[in-house]
Amino acid sequence: MDIDDILASVDHGPGASRESAAIDHQLLTRFWAAERAVSEVLPWPAPLMERMMDRVRIQIETIEDLAASSADMDPSTKHTTHNPNLNLRLSILQTDLARTQYLLRSLLRQRLSKLSKHSMHYLVKLASRSKNPLISDSQSQSQSQSQSQPNSQLTPGDSVPDISSISEISPLSSQEATFVHAHQTMLAGHFGGSFMGAFPPQLRRLDDNAGGTSMVQGPEMKEVVFVRCLVVEVPVVVPGDEGEEDHGVLMRMGDVWVVQWEGVREAWMKGLVELL
Amino acid sequence: MAFPLPRGITPSEIAFLAEMETITIVPRQRLEGMELLSGSIEPLGPPRRASLPLWLALLLKRQRRAHIIPPSWLHPEPLSLILEVESQHQDYKNAFSPPPPLPGQASVTDHETESIARPQYTPDGERYYAAPPFLPHNISGAGTGEKEVPALPFHWIEVGNMLLDAASDDLVDPDQLRRLLKDLREVRMAKMRSGVDALDAAATGGGGVALTGVGAMELGEERGFLTGVVDNLRKIGASKEQARREQLADQRANGGYGATQEDEEEDYMEF
């Protein structure tokens, strides 16, 4: 990479540099494999996804331009010299585009499927964070959310947290947050209409945790995943109950391990391990 | 259903990933360089060798626009050597042969140098450590002059089979390659199965089972079985795990932190 490349990347914005196109593609591929491997929704990589969507849009325009130029090609013009390779170039560009679109589509659908499965969990998680900004994204806190309001609500829909005023919506994207709220509201309406309406009012909450058992199911964090260690060494951690951590086995560079997801979650967030 | 596939990438998705491996070709025609979403493609001009993603190399090969130079490991000699190590060598009775090193990783035979991870930087300024399929593990080594120990790359089954399917005329002795690949697969599959006893370690918090050297497709085949076994073991051992955590918490409360490190379960199995 020489100075011209650096200048070019500055001139044309983040989507234009060649180097970053290749790395972004690798990042997207790795993120997709990770999203497919774990049961929770991973933090939405907003800058990466914006760059990818920009590139896809630009690439579609390029392909359309090329296709148009091949369509109105006049045999008498001097452009005919390019013609033999034009169809090949088009098919390569289209294959590349289709492969990227497949990655994006698979990624988004996988996230949607996880979100609709655990919609209440993510809503409660978002809502609990806004009530107490000191709580980071620790899983255990949202589960034990206290029920301060009196049980006077009449429909299950009232227990769906309102997240419209929340600005910090990690791990979701804004569209996903809207979706998950709409999805859960409809689900609550359906539950209320079909059977929960017949319950006594105090039993109508969807986030009921009477008797110490939360009715909100979250993703299983202890499921095992396959990881490759990318740096010199990474310990598998045992998350403690009060934020304390113990260290388990040590993974070395290039090793592939079967470990519990919560043991390598932090290392994955830092990009020190890769999910396979 | 928003998404019907099970958790963990499926064999066809693994093959999709394997098609991103870089491979060496000799083009038979000129082609201008291109900016693809997956990175830029160098201009092709025969008879100069070029490195392309496997999917593109296969596309060109099917249209008879290029010859594929087989990866340095996909020859009868290195494969026979690896097969011998896998089946005869004492050190690898229960382990896979070592994979090709990551950038900056010290090789297995070389105990002098330390591994130092070499990061690249993402456009967001974060560290990024490249890994297969984005490492040059499948290019032809003839030009680099490196004398490396032969090793099976992560996507060896997929790359091997795809090349045998689409480009067997470019390979050296394809029938023998087929035989060797099949033998390797069987030897390694037996190791994978025999290691199931060690899986209990992965069911406890902080424990794990090493599978270093495993191939992507081998993982894909065993993923459902392994995760099922470990998750069931974890459920069975949940009360034991709870007791262990309480014991650890007690010890920590008594200030005996150093002792807990010693007790930590490390009975994993190199395999």
Features:
heterodimer; A: 276 residues; mainly alpha; Methane Monooxygenase Hydroxylase, Chain G, domain 1; Ribosomal Protein L9, domain 1; 3 domains; three-stranded antiparallel sheet; two-stranded antiparallel sheet; 8 helices; 50% helix; 11% strand; B: 271 residues; 2 domains; two-stranded antiparallel ribbon; 9 helices; disordered C terminus
Structure report:
The complex is a heterodimer of chains A (276) and B (271). Chain A is mainly α and 276 residues long. Chain A has three domains: 3-117, Up-down Bundle (Methane Monooxygenase Hydroxylase, Chain G, domain 1), CATH 1.20.58.1030; 120-212, no CATH class; 224-275, Ribosomal Protein L9, domain 1. In chain A, 50% of the residues lie in helices and 11% in strands. In chain A, the strands form two sheets. In chain A, strands 4-1-5 form a three-stranded antiparallel β-sheet. Chain A has a two-stranded antiparallel sheet with strand order 2-3. Chain A is flat, with a radius of gyration of 24 Å. Chain B is mainly α and 271 residues long. Chain B folds into two domains: 11-194, no CATH class; 216-270. In chain B, the strands form three sheets. A three-stranded antiparallel β-sheet of chain B has the order 4-1-5, covered by helices on one side. In chain B, a hairpin with a 2-residue loop joins strand 2 and strand 3 (39-41). Residues 256-271 of chain B have low confidence and may be disordered. At the A-B interface, helix 2, helix 3, helix 4, strand 1 and strand 2 of A face helix 1, strand 2, strand 3, helix 2 and strand 7 of B. Strand 4 (256-260) of chain A pairs antiparallel with strand 8 of chain B, so a sheet runs across the interface. Chain B: Its main location: nucleus.
